[in-house]
Amino acid sequence: MFYEEKTFEYLIYTILTLIIVFLLGRLDFVLIPLKDAASLILVPILVGGLFYYMLRPVVHMVEKRRIGRKHAVTIVLLGMMIILTGIAIYGGNSIRKEFADFYDYFNEQISGARQSTRGIFGEGDIPVLLIENITGYIVSILEVMFSKFGKNILGLFPTIAGIGTQLILIPFALFYFLKDGHRFLPIMLNVFPERHRDDAKKILIDIDRVIAGYTTGQLMVAFVIGVLMYIGYIIIDLPNALVLSIFAMITSIIPFLGAFLGVLPALLVGITIDMFYIVKIGILSLVVQQIESKFISPNIIGTKLEVHPLTIIFIIIIAISLFGIIGAFIAVPAYAVIKMLAKYYIRIKKTSKE
């Protein structure tokens, strides 16, 4: 009978899962506290995991000098703290001033947008009301774009107390990730039945390899892009070069879409100075992207995710709509892991049938 087939069974499970998800969506009084608690825990785990993959090779290098793991982790973390403190002391004021100047500059341009639009369209040819409507529309787009980005960032931190808690939890999470990271695999293998442990070990090692390669590779590429964009902005004499290059560096972690998003603030700043800046910034972005694709990424990123660019774009858009800005950063590695698990599952199923 049809109801005895596996397809029918999977269909029933899918429908039941969707019904449960729908019903849970109606229970705001349950979901909102859970969401806040998850956000409070998730951010330290994600940030700690990010730094874990960055610093793990350094810890291994220190361990090779016959230093115990705990002491190696302590040395590496102290070294990182000294570097960050040095940057804060010697570069903190400059960075803070750059951000303050950029904020003031952006507010000035928003307040002067109506006058600029009048100058572009002319006073006599187009009705004043139409000019006001066009200007208001442009200004509203800019304000919504920046406010949405800010809300997405702030959405990671439910309260001011939550920010403090997360900042305290991040170094603790990082310390224990680095100290006990080698124990994660045996602990996770204990969850699986003994007959599946060999397959599970291969899967977990491959997942770790993919995440490590992608994370460290993307961060290094993003850093190089940020440096190149900063040099380029200085050459074309664009104001707030440091802030704009930092923004480009952060968005470069997002594959494909990051390159486009990273130059948007620079284009907005450039338009307010001279329309020719659009050409300058476009050429600069094109040159940097060519350098990145031809020389930087092939030499730095060793692990290929084997995901089509169009698939990546759709995945990132869906992740942003579901999880906000943080979804853009975790979408691609999460998809790669899910794809890998699906492949292993199909392979194991075929092997068991044979």
From TrEMBL:
Cell compartments where the protein resides: Cell membrane
An example Gene Ontology CC term for this record: plasma membrane
Annotated TM spans: 7-25, 37-55, 75-92, 153-178, 211-236, 242-268, 275-291, 311-338
GO biological process: transmembrane transport
Superkingdom, taxonomy of origin: Bacteria
Keywords annotated in UniProt: Cell membrane, Membrane, Transmembrane, Transmembrane helix, Transport
Family the UniProt entry places it in: Belongs to the autoinducer-2 exporter (AI-2E) (TC 2.A.86) family.
Protein name per Swiss-Prot or TrEMBL: AI-2E family transporter
Topological relation to the membrane, as annotated: Multi-pass membrane protein
Naturally occurring in which organism (per UniProt): Peptoclostridium litorale DSM 5388
